[in-house]
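user: can you give me the structure for this one chain? tokens are fine.
assistant: on it. calling the predictor now.
[tool input]
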Amino acid sequence: MDRLTLEVIRGAAAYISEEMGVVLRNTAFSPNIKDRHDHSCAVLAPWGELVAQAEHIPVHIGSMAVGVENALKELRRAGEDLGPGDVLVTNDPYIAGTHLNDVLMIKPVYHQDSLVALVASKAHYVDVGGAVPGSIGGARELIQEGLVIPPVKLVEEGRLNRWLLDVLRANVRTPEIFEGDLRAQLSSLEVGARRVRELAEKYGGEVLVEAWRWILDYTERYTRNTIRDLGVEGSWEAEDYVELQDGSLRRIKVKVTISGGGVEADYTGTDPQVEEPINAVLGVTVAASTFALKTVIDPEMPVNHGFFRAVKVYAPPGTLLNPRPPAPVAAGNTETSQRIVDVVHKALHQALPDRVPAASCGSMTNLMLGGEGWAFYETIACGQGAGPWGDGMDGVHTNMTNTLNTPIERLEQEYPVLFTKYELRPDSEGPGKWRGGLGVVRALKILSEKAVLTVVGERCSTRPWGLHGGRPAPPALYLLKREDGRVERLPCKATRVVGRGDEVIVKTPGGGGYGDPCERSRDLVLKDLMDEKISRERAEREYCWSGSPRGPPT
């Protein structure tokens, strides 16, 4: 096969993944998928290895191949297989690899009676039942987080299993939204399968399958050569912490080993699993580890299963990063995944100090609200860690999340809420020669008579760390201001009943700083002062500032 044809097929597979995402986004019902783009799509080889992905959610993509392999294995164990016109669905975290809100669907692609590919997608459904609206938080076991869907055929020989759909609808708070998102996901798979069949018709099924093998082998060779070119071998250890509901800490420990063109992340020494949702299933641990490693090894390289072949991830069973059922895992996907990135980066900094940034905020900052007939979910932006190349970005989603800001106008149109503030959070950066990005302040009032509020975040007890003399960023802050004026400071993980006029105020952390803050350019300090990103007091205390905010730097 000539290289030009291979490159055309490789590019086409990536584009197919992107087009699937566009279809899913455009036809979805919930703002979480339509506006935040909390979904991911991919093309896989017939044997289940990831071939191409869209630029979607890292925690979805990194766990996609794990989830597909597990789901197909469970289906075959039941004596079934995927035939033409079938679609498999599951959200079981211990199979699909993330959490119950992420619904995984897999569709086989046949050409002339031969299986030539699989197309798959994951989408975060706002509510899948469970103890609280939004299905994240407050659980002591998996069943309290929502409806568990084992691997089962949602579509068989082109016919939708209406009985199964009715069961799913009956177990969620917003059945119309659920079904709308489900049908959007099915539509995206159909488009993906159609495009793959077009490739097979143009080049032939055997050529397509051979192209998948070449793409994967090439990426593996590229990855191993890139690792060797780093010029370092050895092992480095690091640890960081996640927070329980009572504010106590649990340790995540890693040893990263670079040797012989491969990398291993070993989490031996991580604390045991807990009866809270911060446990991360192995799929999440694999996704976060490979993401963190890729950002340091080569951020621009293609991602497919060839990369995963060069990376080994081990987490002892029964720990926070590889729990045993029925441990709850909802926030392990959103929060613990972020801490895995932090701890891997901290270890790699010892080996490759000029390639690793300071810690970003370290939380997706989940905010959930719900009442009769409605459920609202979003993650809130924060600050990116600074690096040797410059300041961290302000008010962005970092690391394992790649979602967008949900427009306030869209949320106010859909839900009984009124936003009262949305702005960058002054003085929330980690000071440094290069400062961390600022977090945000996002506040809203409840307009319904009664609702259930849940917040699930991190970095309330700990802080995003700096590097090379850079300082940590201030912690997160959650406030609940009642209509009568009472103000409660919420822990990072809390559920409260709220009512009309109550206001929720979320202040997310910034990113850690990089380098000595006193070495920061006077011009940059002045600009931050004039932009009101930092206060005069902070400039004097953290940046050794002695000039006038209205005059030239001194």
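assistant: here you go. The chain has 13 helices and 20 strands. The first helix runs from residue 3 to 27.
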